[in-house]
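Supplementary Text 2. Reproducibility record for the structural model of the 155-residue chain.

All settings were left at their defaults, and a single model was retained for analysis rather than an ensemble. We include the record here because the model underlies the residue-level annotations in Supplementary Table 4.
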Amino acid sequence: MESVLVVDDDDNIRSFLVEVLDRLGFESETAENGKKGLEKFHAGSFTLIITDMRMPVMDGLTMLKQIRSEGSKIPIIVVTAFPTVSSAVESLVHGADYYLVKPINLDDLKAKIGKAIERRKINKRLASTKIANTVMVGLIPVWIILGWLLARLFK
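Retained model, structure tokens:
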């Protein structure tokens, strides 16, 4: 079963998101700030992260930047009760997949989760295709040499 990490300092929002994710068929873990969220991210295996922007100890943007600096491509949805154009742009520039405003529209959240999961699956397929293509291209010299040797052998 796919697992989602929910990071928000508001107990009610965390509970709401866990309930929604449960109905959508996801397991979920929660953290009350970015620091604990980062610790759980490192300790677990998640399909998606949903994080609040403003939190004590470590905010969602700092957590997002840290995760992206480590090279992770995990989909991240940022939610905030204090939307500004600059915070939306900053979170998207630093690698958030989506930016949602509280109160969260349930249909919009479901759609964004679905799109984020689908994008992750497509990216994984593309990565495996790139590896296969690289291996095949890398083997071309071997086949050329083998062909040359066989041609000389059967002359």
